[in-house]
Every structure is written in C-alpha cells, then in structure tokens.
C-alpha cells in the first residue's frame, strides 16, 4: 500500500546552485547527498517533514552525471523542472507486482538501489498520464545499540 509522498524529484543543471536557491529562499537544508552511478545522478535530499509511519517526505534535487542518463536526456529536452514523483510503501515488491497486473509498465524486474539505501522501481510515464512515478521502500532504520 502506498502510504505517503516519499519525494518529488526535480531535475537541475547545477546541483550546488539549486541547493543554494532552496536554502536561501525557503530555508531547506540538505539532509543527505550522494552520487548514484547506476541512475547517472548526483542528488541532494532536502527533508521537508516526517510522517507518522516513521518515513519522511523530501525534495530530491537531481543533476545528471552523464548526458545519456534518464535525467540528462530529460533536461536536454525539457529544461529544469519536476522530473518525477515518488510514493513510499513498506512493500515495493508487492505493490509493483499489483500495479503491473493492472497493465501499467513497471520498468525494473527487481527493485534497484535508490537514495539512502532505499529500494526503488519506476512506472512508465506514458501509462501514468504523463507522470514518471517511482515506488520507494526506505532502508530500515537501525535501532540504537543498548
Ligand atoms: C521521459 N518521458 C517522460 C519523462 N521521461 N514523461 C514524463 N516525465 C518524465 N520524467 C516521456 C518522453 O517525453 C517521451 O514522450 C517518452 O516518455 C519516452 O522518453 P524518451 O525521452 O524517449 O526516453 P526513454 O524512453 O529512453 O526513457 C524514458 C524512461 C526513462 C521513463 C523509460 O527515463 C527511465 O527509465 N526512467 C526511470 C529512471 C530515472 O528516471 N532515473 C532518474 C532518477 P514522447 O511523447 O516524446 O514519446 S534516479 C532517482 O530518482 C533515484 C536516485 C532515487 O529516487 O533514489
């Protein structure tokens, strides 16, 4: 079951300048940043709020690391802007299977690694009224040692 908006992915040409815009304009700080070579992105996660299921919602700023990546191709065609939305779920495998049965193209046979050790998959935008849609199961939160 999809229980929250995990993040909104925003494609940008210059990650550092875009991070600075969100900090200076809204006061959002970088919660986490990483490079995901498989996806071809350098990204910054800005945490907007926590949710009652222990998750959170983020803005995800994405700069391509190569022109032939999904974000690189999209930027060249559309310029900067909202690239995808991501719904959070405790069970990305189960939800992806259910959605595939409804005739929506799920882009990966098995979920891949996303931000902060999450497991992610994508739904084809042409099957989702023009919206590239991601499903995310966050990495388990490590319990503190006693
Ligand atoms: C492409 N299209 C989109 C779109 N990207 N429509 C809405 N939103 C998008 N973001 C449309 C194009 O305009 C085109 O429509 C059609 O889909 C085919 O696009 P294409 O330019 O020919 O590109 P393809 O087919 O090679 O690839 C599109 C596809 C790809 C969605 C399959 O971008 C993909 O695999 N995306 C999933 C991975 C991804 O986006 N990774 C980056 C974020 P027309 O009408 O012109 O035919 S990584 C991430 O977010 C991770 C790190 C995380 O969250 O943790």
Automatic annotation (TrEMBL):
Residues 4-138 form the VOC domain. InterPro entries: Glyas_Bleomycin-R_OHBP_Dase (IPR029068), MeMalonyl-CoA_epimerase (IPR017515), MMCE/EMCE_epimerase (IPR051785), VOC_core (IPR037523). CDD domains: MMCE. Coiled coil: none annotated. GO terms for biological process: L-methylmalonyl-CoA metabolic process. The keyword Metal-binding applies. Keywords: Metal-binding. Pfam families: Glyoxalase_4. One of its GO terms (molecular function) is methylmalonyl-CoA epimerase activity. It comes from the Bacteria. Gene3D superfamilies: 2,3-Dihydroxybiphenyl 1,2-Dioxygenase, domain 1 (3.10.180.10). Belongs to the methylmalonyl-CoA epimerase family. PANTHER family: METHYLMALONYL-COA EPIMERASE, METHYLMALONYL-COA EPIMERASE, MITOCHONDRIAL. This is Methylmalonyl-CoA epimerase. It comes from Streptomyces fructofermentans.
């Amino acid at each position: 079951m999809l229980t929250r908006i995990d993040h909104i992915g925003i494609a940008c040409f210059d990650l550092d300048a875009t991070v600075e815009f969100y900090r200076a304009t809204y006061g959002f700080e970088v919660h986490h940043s990483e490079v995901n070579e498989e996806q071809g992105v350098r990204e910054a996660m800005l945490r907007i709020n926590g949710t009652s299921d222990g998750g959170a919602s983020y803005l995800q700023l994405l700069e391509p690391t190569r022109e032939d990546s999904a974000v690189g191709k999209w930027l060249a065609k559309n310029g900067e802007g909202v690239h995808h939305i991501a719904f959070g779920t405790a069970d990305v495998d189960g939800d992806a299977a259910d959605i595939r049965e409804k005739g929506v193209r799920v882009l990966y046979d098995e979920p891949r690694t996303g931000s902060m050790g999450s497991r992610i998959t994508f739904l084809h935008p042409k099957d989702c009224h023009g919206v590239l849609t991601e499903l995310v199961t966050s990495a388990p939160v490590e319990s503190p040692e006693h």
